[in-house]
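Why run this: before we spend reagent on co-expression, it is cheaper to look at a predicted model of the complex and decide which construct boundaries make sense. The entries below are exactly what would go into the expression plan.
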Amino acid sequence: MNTIVNAISLPPVPPQSCSPHGHLDRLAAKYGVTLQENLHLFERCEESDAISGAILPGWCLCDEEGRDLSGRSGIPLLPWRSERRFIELRNLVTTRTVETVCLWRSRCLSSPERWTLSQAIYREIGLCQWVLGEPFVSVYAATHTDIVANIIGRLASGIACGIEISLALPADSPLMDRHEAISRRGVASDQVVDSIVRPSSVYVMSEQGLQSYLDTDSELFGLGENQAALVREAFSSIRQPENSGADLATHQQICRVVAAVSRSVKSNKRIDLVP
Amino acid sequence: MKTVAMKPINVAIFSLTHGHTRKYFQTLKTNANLNWVAVSAETPAIKAHFESQGFGVPCYLDQNEMLNRHPEIDAAVLASSNDRHFEQMHLCAERKVDILSMKIPTFDLAEYDRMIELVDRAGIICQVELELHYNPVIHRIKQVVASGQLGPLVSIQGTNTTLTPVWAFPWQGVPKKSYGRRRPLRKDDSRFCGGALCDHPHIFDLARWLTGSDFDSLFAQVGPNLRPDLIEEDMLVINGRMKNGVSFLIDPSWSRMEERLTIPGPGWEVFPKRMEVDLVVSGEKGCLAADCFGPNVYHNGAPNDRYTVQYTYFDEWIGMMDEFTDCVRTRRQPAINLRWHRRTIEVMNACYDSIACDNVVSVSNN
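The model came back. Tokens follow.
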């Protein structure tokens, strides 16, 4: 006969926030996955410069010219594949809820403290290709200093893409982005109609001013939406090492598109890519 | 303290008639701590639908046969209509099977007390499925309130509004199965208890949890039905005071119109968002506003070309099953157990009392 402990458990609030790597450790322990000791998850490249076992967003392994640095610096992750809003956007496309996409529009507003222009381009190119399931076949870009890039591209099936990137936000600003697939049968978007920003899930108005929170993942409570996606992607990568070759190939293909954007800016010409 | 060995917990599901049933399928398949061994289905049609999904889990039309053929069952999810919970708890208690009950064990408080007695006597775990506790936004709300940043609370306003599930889960439209008996809403009304209020205990539970207090008095008002062919209430609001003076206003309506699908799926929504839990918590030093199921992604594509919210997270069941697993293994009672939840059921009954007398009722001494 089992004995019931009389005390009622404490409220089921998860542990307080810790680093993305700490969360990765916790996920691994929970699901019985062994993490190699020489691997460490980083959010940014500067932390990982001297560490060969770094796993980090693929955009950290892309230089100013869009060249691939993964061979000497670490394992690139494609974190949008684990970000829930992008998973659902992709589902809407693959299940043909929106059918025959004609135009992709994305906007990404951030700060230079977060990433460089080529890194932001990497992310927007990569997630566009993943959501729509097609590679870029041409790009033309207009930039201004290292702050702004306005990119037009075409995907293999002919879908036109408009990508707006600005790093003009102040340091520590939250990432503000919007993605939209416009099809012959409806529009799919991660931004609600009649708004120019994505809302948070919690707003607190107190003597400390206005604070907002976007909590989307109970198991990774304490991490922001982008951080949670990074941890999920790292965990997926570690669980399925057999995919690493394909992931690296995808990373290198994205780098080629980013490099083409750079060449387009320098030449003021449209650059064609071989898929 | 005796602990159960760290082997996977063998889990069965009863009935498959509750709207939350399918939420367990993924968790039971992916959580290595759980081993899904059997299900029982109430009708051949439900059995056929379950088997068509290819889970490879044996399905029985007789719940006794399921239990007899699978003596290895450690725990069971009672995914059934409210009027079957007592009978199924009895079967579980006889076999020392731990229980995860749906959100309304029963509205009959005498029966409820017999459930507590059954569980106590058998020495089994019984968790009540209030999955909202494991929502990441609720975690944040609890954290902010507990921090004292808002100061002493003065008010809670909350919605727990959905479409009605009755077309897909017909028992929720049958007073005997939902409320436990045919109790008229009030003398001059042809409707019965058992509708939207019965579907939404979460917001009452949260008011208790967040204020750390208990309901003192309330007034409940029903509106005309949004769906005139339903014989239960679908639109209502409740306000009142907690014992510590906190004022509240709660909307647990089925106020989001739906297509009358028999199997939930794409195109269920007429109103773009099928389910909302929005909370405003005010304190003497500040205020919090939260959307527990947002933001998401949005589309106006197939099947109906209507603007629709596509949810991006629904992982409450992961955390809830984690807690259930831990409770089964360590033999601790869960936070949301039968005794804690009884008061919420009392308060929901008090809402019906208020509707019946069209007046304020005290719930202090119920």
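The first helix of chain A runs from residue 20 to 30. The longest strand of chain A covers residues 101-109. Bring this page to Monday's planning discussion.
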